[in-house]
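[Automated response] Your request has been received and processed.

Submitted sequence:
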Amino acid sequence: MGAIVKFVKSTAIALCIMFILPWTIFSDIQAKNRLYTIGIAVDDPTFGEEQEGFKDGMAEKGYVEGKDIRYISYGYIESGKDVDSKTQRLLSDNADIILAIGNTSASWANKAAEGTDIKVLFCMINSDPVGEGLVKSLSLPGGNVTGIRVADSIPKSLEWLIRVVPGIKRVYLPYNPEEEVSVLALTGLDETAARLGIKLVLHKTGSVEEVLFAIENMPGDIDCIFRIPSPTLDPRNAELSRAAIKRGLPMGSAVLLDEAVLVTFSPDSYQAGRDAARLAHQIIQGACPGDLPVVTSEVLLKINLKTAEKIGIHIPDSALAQATTIIR
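Generated structure:
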């Protein structure tokens, strides 16, 4: 009797291997040969490195654009502007994954994908996707969404500026009050400044020209400039850097800008895109986004010794020892 049972079990296992294994192999081949569609939506033109990192990461995973994968751009997502038409386009495109870079894009993608099989992969949103209502928790997002969150590096970025340039008391900080990303960046920064014993001199502005004029005519009691994310100012920060160097003012930044900035402590935008590609690959392989933990972006400390020399600043060796990148 025992021999018969063993024979039946062995036969059942063999049959499973005969029928299930070929189907699994066929399904895997079918998945690899399928053309996947990934839609990309961004908050503003400054999110370029994230897209570059994502596409490079997908290429390293073996995806060939036009053969295994295609990208569709939905442009810049602005609250209340053309969102309905972009949602309809997203649905008609039959996108498999929507890569949403920035808070506004992530909120739009999450809402647009409700009730569909579209997977949402956010990238470079603020440090609280749970509070934003995008995920249930960082370890188990739930639903069809996961992604890369930005490390809360802005307070630490201000601290690094103070460490690199001791004796700072008054810090000029330009920002556009109409930009959500800038307003969010300011949250709690006054408390950080108070703890550091410095005064933030805030300048509400809507143009690069206004900031250039302010730097060129900066009062003598301003010790340095601090930059937070701003779609208005970021693309032309090289002009602000030149003006700051000309006035001998050190500039610190909480976002990756031009290389002339003296000290930058910010999320690694390119690596965040690569991390998003890793998640996209797992999703394409069959993983449920809601089961993939949210990843926190890496941060970079970049110090420019050329700029330091131009403005007469000595960078402490202790700071240089911790820098990710040193421009000499």
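Summary generated for your ticket: The two ends are 81 Å apart (CA to CA). The chain has a mean pLDDT of 88.
If you did not submit this request, please reply to this message.
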